[in-house]
Design goal:
With 84 residues, the chain is mainly alpha-helical. It is built from 5 helices and no strands.
Amino acid sequence: MADEAQIKADCERIFKRFDANGDGKISLAELGNALKELGSSSQDEVKRRMAEMDLDGDGFISLEELFDFQRANPDLMKIVVKKL
């Protein structure tokens, strides 16, 4: 198992890559672009992933929400890390 520091570093790298405008949060459009880059372009999947990750319901994914998603879905995040 990867250590916590490496997991956080991977999440931060993914977050920075997906946060295209650098405002510290990932919007639905940014998530859609990122998922398209990873091979998924279904708008339904983008909306589903946003609903899974946007725990506070503000319409954006924070770095902390991405950490939480990673902890709940470590295998999925490993795939994302490999593709980036």
